[in-house]
Amino acid sequence: MAETMTQTAVLILLGPPGAGKGTQARMLEEKFGLVQLSTGDLLRAAVAAGTEAGQQAKAVMDAGGLVSDDIVLAILKDRMAEPDTRNGVILDGFPRTAKQAAALDALLEEQGLQLGAAISLDVDDAAMVERVSGRYTCANCGEGYHDSFKKPAVAGVCDKCGSTEFKRRADDNAETVGSRLAAYHEQTAPLITYYEGKGALKRVDAMGEIDRIAADLAAIVKTVTA
Ligand SMILES: [Zn+2]
Predict the structure, then answer these.
(1) Residue 169 is among the residues annotated as catalytic for this protein
(2) Count of domains in the chain?
(3) Does the annotation mark 212 as catalytic?
(4) I need a surface site. Which of 45, 157, 185, 186 has the fewest CB within 10 A?
(5) What region holds the Adenylate kinase active site lid domain (predicted)?
């Protein structure tokens, strides 16, 4: 059962691919009755519902353009007026720039709301490259293995089914993972600076056990809604 909130929590969750952002957001949804709002889902829902802002977004996307910050904010404002968001929201994918962050602050102020926290799921890049790039699976039964952390008992033979065929995802290599992380840091740096400057940035070490990370996040949510 979700805990009772005394104040609407507006949270921003930042984290690179592989940091477990989706898993953690779902746990926060369950524990605190929050709603995760990702930009892509927001846009699709608004277009499908045919709201004014949704129609504007559709026109831009149909013309192959990028939906402006103003339209995204209008869609976010509409969505946050719906009753299921009364406990709070977890924003995922917006804001992406310091300019968008400032526009979000203005929207929240207009709504009588305040940003609870921008939470950065921090990863150790080198460890992340090792974790992701070492993954492979049995081609027959799908059992997951890892070069460093979970080798088959007999080299080259699946523990579960005895198959000797394994496969790796093409994008699970060190180079791709490294460049994904670099792109993430480059994109996110201005946001980190922005929220640090406002004293709203919280950092969570996202390299350990899922339950410990969830507990750290829950502690932050509690402090911003108490
Ligand atoms: Zn197998």
Answers:
(1) yes
(2) 1
(3) no
(4) 186
(5) 135-171
Q: Tell how far CA 40 is from the center of its chain.
A: 12
CB contact at 8 A, 18 and 122:
no
pLDDT computed for residue 6 by the predictor: 58
Distance from C-alpha of 157 to C-alpha of 176, rounded to nearest angstrom? 27
User: For 46-88, how does the pLDDT look when each residue is reduced to its tens digit (9 = 90+)?
Assistant: 999 999 999 999 999 999 999 999 999 999 999 999 999 999 9
Whether the model pTM is above 0.70: yes
Q: What is the pLDDT of residues 171-194, one digit of tens each?
A: 888 899 999 999 999 999 999 999
- Residue 208 exposed, middle or buried by CB count within 10 Å (0-12, 13-18, 19+): exposed
Q: Is the pLDDT of residue 3 over 60?
A: no
Pick the catalytic residue: 21, 79, 131, 202?
Answer: 21
Residue 49 inside a domain? The answer is: yes
Instruction: Report whether 129 belongs to an annotated binding site.
Output: no
Q: Angle of helix 52-62 relative to helix 69-80, nearest 10 degrees?
A: 150
Sign of CA dihedral 105, 70, 61, 186: negative
Residue 70, domain member (yes or no): yes
Confirm whether residue 65 is marked as ligand binding: yes
Is 36 annotated as contributing to ligand binding?
no
Which element (helix H / strand E) includes 129?
helix 125-133
Question: Cα of 143 to ligand 1 centre, how many Å?
Answer: 5
Q: Is residue 133 part of a domain?
A: no
**Do residues 61 and 36 lie in contact, with contact meaning Cβ atoms separated by under 8 Å?**
no
Q: Is 141 inside any structural domain?
A: no
- Identify the CATH number of the domain in which residue 45 sits: 3.40.50.300
